[in-house]
Structures are given as structure tokens and as C-alpha cells.
Amino acid sequence: MDGYHYPKRILNTFPNVEEAYARRGSHWTFDVEGFYQLVTSIRDPINHQKIIYAPSFDHAIGDPIENDIKILPSHQLVIFEGLYLHLNKPHIWKSIALQMNELWFLQVDRAIARKRIIKRHVESGISNDEEAASYRANNNDFVNADYILENSMTPTRTINSIED
């Protein structure tokens, strides 16, 4: 689903550009229409001549790469991974969720998630240090997490993530 992050050139057109970048990763910073088109095209009957292309996301440049993932007619299973796949609102997100055969939810203890998020932000260069990463986690990641927990459909299956 990361390939459907709005690219920076689109975020630069938002009414509040600073907020768009600060909240990048929130459900409203995704090209949900494009993602919906992908999901519905995969649900269409198989055309043995048709390859479906999807974008990927390049963390080094911080933007999606168009048509980087090939979904071939021979693929028998497609797994979508993303934060907003269970949302019951806005309506288009619910429409996406309803097209999934199963909805799995990965339950993570908030303290473990916080540690993982901070580490990822520092290692990926999103944040310069742990203090900046902690600020981003509090003001974006956990705001998103709370929205998801409050506005999600019941998953088919819940998996508890643990620390080894």
C-alpha cells in the first residue's frame, strides 16, 4: 500500500503543505482512489493477457515508484499490507476493506510499537535522532493508530506480535 502515498509533488499542492508532510502516512495522504482502482482491477475476472502494475515506495527518495510491481495473471494470491485496510470510514476505505477476502490485524503492545517506530524513523532517515523520532511517533504515528483503532471493521483474524 505504501506505493499509494501521495508523492511530494502532490503534497506540495495541499492547502497546508507543512501539515501534509508532518502527517504523511495518515489515511488522507494516500491516493486512495488509485488504490481502490488497483483492488477492483485485481477482483475483475482474470484476463490471461493482462499484467496489472502497482507502485512501490522508495524510502531512499521518499516517494512512490510508478508501475514497479507486476501482478501477473498466474499469481494466485495477492496480499495487501497497510494500516488502513480495515477502515469503516471514509466510505472509499470501507469499499476497499469489503473487497478483501480476509482482514488480518497485527496487534502490537503500544510500548513495543513505539520502540520499533522510533528505531525505524532514525534508521530510515525520516528523523535525525531519537528525540525527533519520538516527536513524530507521538504526533503522527500514534494519532494514526488511534484513528485506526476507533474506526476499523472487525478483522477476520488478529495476530499478536511479540518481542523475541
Notable features of this structure?
164 residues, alpha+beta, Rossmann fold, two-stranded antiparallel sheet, two-stranded parallel ribbon, 40% helix, transferase
Q: Secondary-structure map with pairings?
A:
Blueprint: H1 8-11, H2 17-22, H3 32-43, E1 52-58, E2 63-71, H4 91-98, E3 104-107, H5 110-124, H6 130-150, E4 157-160
Parallel strand pairs: 3-4
Antiparallel strand pairs: 1-2
Helix pairs in contact: 3-4, 5-6
Count of strand segments: 4
Write out the CATH superfamily name: P-loop containing nucleotide triphosphate hydrolases
Radius of gyration: 17 Å
Return the average pLDDT rounded to an integer: 93
Largest sheet: 2 strands, antiparallel
Report the principal-axis shape. Answer: globular
Tell me the helix content: 40-55%
H/E series, N to C?
A: HHHEEHEHHE
In CATH, the architecture is 3-Layer(aba) Sandwich
CATH topology: Rossmann fold
Give me the number of helical elements.
6
Q: Pairing-aware structural class of the strands and helices? A: alpha+beta
N/C terminus separation? 27 Å
How many domains make up the 3D coordinates? 1
Oligomer: single chain
Strand numbers in spatial order across the main sheet: 1-2
Q: Using the coordinates above, name the CATH class.
A: Alpha Beta
Q: List low-pLDDT spans.
A: none
Work out the strand percent.
Answer: 5-15%
